TrEMBL record:
Biological source species: Falsiroseomonas selenitidurans
InterPro entries cross-referenced by the UniProt entry: Glyco_transf_61_cat (IPR049625), Glycosyltransferase_61 (IPR007657)
Keywords assigned by UniProt, alphabetized: Glycoprotein, Glycosyltransferase, Transferase
One Pfam family linked to the record: Glyco_transf_61
Chain ranges of the Glycosyltransferase 61 catalytic domain: 157-324
Record-given protein name: Glycosyltransferase family 61 protein
Amino acid sequence: MRAPPPERPPAALRLKGPEAFAPVADAAALLDSDGGVLELHPAGRHEYAWGPCFGAEGRPTALYGRWEMDHGLRLTSLRDAWLAGGGAVIGADGGVVLDGLAAHAHEIAADPARFALTLRLYGLLRAEDGALSALPGPVRTVEEPVFHLMCQADNAFTHFLIDTLPKLALWEALPAPRPRLLVSQEAWRRWRGFLLAVSGQAEDAFLVHAPRTLLRLRQVLVASFPRWLDARSVAPFRRATAAMPAGQRRILVVRRDAWAWDRMLLNEREVVALLRRRGFEPVVPSTLDVAGQLALYRSASLVAGALGGGLLNAIFSAPGTGVLSLVSPDYTRPLIDSSTHLTGLRIAHAVGESFSASRDRNNSPYLVDLAAVERALDALEDSAGRPTQPTGGPFP
């Protein structure tokens, strides 16, 4: 019988990258390992092409910047580990695994203040001399293996949708019986219905992690962020609505919740009026339960809205569905564009003009030219008879 892990995490911590772990051949070997890593998809630069983009006066334009995923898809196994209050995994040797930051850690670390804040959100304290330690909290011991299904920003639906739920694909790569799914208390409170619907699991498959609590874990499986890079990473989303009938509705997603202040579309009334004339009905998905939301997106042949979680929910729509993205140049995310070959969705963008805020450029208010909306919708209607078919198999 193994000795229990110490009462507290090691005092001196250090960040530990995937290269520090020993490769294993398959998922069964991973489950038997301590400090093993299973590479499911090699790291590499993933190029993408934007869908048609239109700007001022409806003229074709371009969205600049490239969002390249170079972190690969992998699972790491650690035994006698710790979980900090914000989700950081701490090995018995004091090595900290933050696999979700692997693709962007060098950018964050370049700004000491931002790096310290990010680490604190994960439950770590960074001293002025760079030393790391775990923030204190009550201790809970978990004897059964768990799968780390968390994201530091999973209180925001967009991050939950692109950073948390796709990890289910890596969990499904494990042989049964699979570990319980470790989720944050906030994600469980806000998005429990989506977790159950997309995973296909009952509530007892989940273990809810309370904030500011330290977990002593006998074994934890840590996943990188799959995003929507591979056919298997979108499969759980598509299965959730596969049995629902596809329809021909045109829906315009509007926000009426606390997040509506982010990336506010200043001429929303004019956009709504225009799209109503083109057969769209405004909908507020947050007023529906999860089953109602999934059925709503499945019933649509065209989905329009500001780029964000509501629009990204189009991943639940049938292949061939058109997506009209009203996008701020300060907030460009090619998630749908880069995965159309996996989802079968078609996308076009009406690119607006942003009033860039100095303190929060990412969420600045913006306007969209109505001519750009018209041209983007025309492009989707013209391509309706040529839907993109999903392709590609699961990762090895």
